[in-house]
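Standup notes
- DV: blocked on the single-chain target, sequence here:
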Amino acid sequence: MTPSAHEAARLRVVANLSPREIEFIRAVCHESEPTYEQVAKQMGVAQNTVNGYRENIFHKFGIKSKAGLVIFAYKWGLLAKGG
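- DV (later): unblocked, structure below
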């Protein structure tokens, strides 16, 4: 994939994520390896809300595990710098 094609694909991926889903991805994929319960506290939402973000993202993109989410986030440039 050429750089411009990859960037176009990345923009399509990002367009299919809400700002809170992106926040969730960045929180989950942090080097501290937080639990979903810790992510819920960090985001100020109920754990059921975090579970909903996870289920929606996994379904939309065919992700099957937390490791898969990390790979997805890295591939599409969704990880926060320094995290």
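- Follow-up: The two ends are 27 Å apart (CA to CA).
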